[in-house]
Write a structure and sequence with these properties.
The protein is 35% helix and 17% strand. The protein has 472 residues and is of the alpha/beta class. The chain has three domains: 229 residues, Aspartate Aminotransferase, domain 2, CATH 3.40.640.10; 109 residues, Aspartate Aminotransferase, domain 1 (Alpha-Beta Complex), CATH 3.90.1150.10; 67 residues, Orn/Lys/Arg decarboxylase, C-terminal domain (Ornithine Decarboxylase, Chain A, domain 4). The strands form five sheets. The protein has a seven-stranded mixed sheet, with helices on both faces. Strands 9-10-13-12 form a four-stranded antiparallel sheet. Strands 16-15-17 form a three-stranded antiparallel sheet, covered by helices on one side. The longest helix is centred in the middle third of the chain and has 17 residues.
């Protein structure tokens, strides 16, 4: 075996994965597929078709995916939802046009705006009163923004969000379509929506024009596998294909494409009872966690430690909050080192756990036991003192003095945080995961944005990008 495989095997074998990818390292009925990976790793040969000009077996596979989700056309993505977001935005707008998008969008949407020299205008949603995590936007907010920016040629929103909050896509689509412009939805975390009454309807079903879904995040499929769904007539199919050829590898992995098709087959064969069983397993877990005293839970089933109803509409996400709301990273480290529980995200205020149909009852019992032990042993990891959560920067507007692409292309210089306030940002600075930028080119650097980045870095979060200002 190669060294990388050996290291990956070590990392994979000693933890319970409450994070993506959705297959959770379990075969779930398709073990023969996983055993046959190397022997079926092809390239474009006679009979194998071509992802960039699909006419045979790849086209047939994409048609099966379109039938499953109910889209007019579905494209395979082997460079993840990132490629789909880049291609979807590029296909929907001409260079220099105006895109209205959520401020908390994924970095790939910003990169599309820079590459296409788009004018970007923002919608600013709310944060959860409980977890302080970013939520979605309402149809009313979108309509007000469109009234303010009538030159908008497309709208881009994220639903569900990384933490599991959803927008009313059907209502937003109605608002957007009255302007005869397309709605693009980053549904990277919503590939499992629409298959059961226990889940929200998918963005495809709700009327979005372009929908990008990461199969690997919430369904049994390999990392980097995703789909782009196209509906309606506001965006041309040939435009989407043209830009997918730009943004996807010219040597696409047949293993990844086979994984997509295998995932589509698996989901097509699932019964309503399979989804209901998963839903009930998740309900049982939340019920078991209701007696925790120093750890609070916000998910679809419960909202401990608060007198409000949860806004998370599906069982695939759980936000875990320590009583001292500054100890999220400490709790994550404790669960990892003591009980081999690996969370999807750890920030000072909370942990994020992802659940999929691949999570067995046994794994959920292991998680329940670990959280109960951590609750009993809270003095070993929880700090004393101020228990208020670290303030999450509100989605308030920072003054933009240059278009994003202009500042990105401008000459920049590295700056120290103490000298950065008031300067024009020349770079993206992003906290990962999930990849939402705290600083973007063209905006004045604010003390709030700097504080968000510095606090995240102090807590051990990964910071991508360097603090740079436009040379004036």
């Amino acid at each position: 075996m190669g060294k990388l495989f050996d290291e990956i095997e070590k990392l994979s074998g000693d933890s319970y994965p409450f994070h993506m990818p959705g297959h959770k390292r379990e075969a779930l009925g398709n073990g023969a597929f996983f055993e046959a990976l190397y022997s079926n790793d092809l390239t474009e040969i006679t009979g194998s078709d071509d992802l960039h000009k699909p006419e045979g077996i790849i086209k047939d596979a994409m048609d099966r995916a379109a039938a499953l989700y109910g889209s007019k056309h579905t494209f395979f993505l082997i460079n993840g939802s990132t490629a789909g977001i880049l291609a979807g935005i590029s296909a929907a707008l001409r260079s220099g046009e105006t895109l209205l998008m959520m401020r908390g969008s994924h970095m790939s949407a910003y990169h599309a705006a820079v590459l296409r020299h788009l004018k970007v205008r923002f919608i600013y949603g709310e944060t959860s009163a409980i977890s302080k995590a970013a939520k979605g936007v309402s149809a009313e907010e979108v309509e007000r923004a469109l009234d303010s920016y009538p030159e908008t040629r497309a709208v881009f929103i994220t639903s569900p969000t990384y933490e599991g909050y959803s927008c009313d896509i059907r209502a937003i689509a109605d608002v957007v379509h009255k302007r005869n412009i397309p709605l693009i939805v980053d549904a990277a975390h919503g590939a499992h929506f629409g298959f059961s009454p226990d889940f929200p309807e998918s963005a495809v079903q709700a009327g979005a024009d372009i929908v990008i879904m990461s199969l690997h995040k919430t369904l049994p499929s390999l990392t980097q596998t995703a789909l782009l769904h196209l509906n309606g007539d506001l965006v041309k199919e040939e435009n989407v294909q043209k830009y997918l050829t730009v943004y996807q590898s010219s040597s696409p992995s047949y293993i990844l494409m086979a994984s997509i098709d295998e995932c589509v087959r698996l989901v097509s064969d699932m019964r309503e009872s399979d989804w209901r069983d998963f839903y009930e397993r998740r309900r049982e877990l939340s019920d078991k966690l209701s007696d925790l005293k120093h750890i609070y839970i916000e998910d679809h089933f419960s909202c401990s430690g608060a007198e409000v109803k949860t806004d998370i509409p599906e069982p695939g996400k759980m936000i875990v909050m320590p009583e001292n709301r500054r100890d999220g990273v400490r709790l994550a480290n404790y669960l990892r080192s003591r009980y081999h529980i690996e969370s999807e995200l750890a920030v000072p205020a909370y942990l994020l756990l992802i659940f999929t149909v691949s999570d067995s009852r046994k794994n959920l019992e292991v998680l329940s036991d670990a959280l109960h032990r951590a609750d009993e042993e809270y003095k070993e990891w929880m700090t004393e003192g101020d228990k208020a959560p670290v303030e999450v920067r509100k989605n308030t507007e920072n003054p933009a003095v240059m278009e994003m692409w202009e500042a990105f292309d401008a000459e920049g210089e590295s700056v120290d945080p103490e000298n950065a306030c008031g300067r024009i940002s020349a770079s993206f600075v992003t906290v990962y995961p999930p990849g939402r930028p705290a600083l973007i080119p063209g905006e004045k650097i604010s003390s709030e944005a700097l504080l968000e980045v510095m606090e995240a870095e102090e807590e051990g979060c990964e910071i991508r990008g360097h603090l740079r200002a436009v040379v004036e």
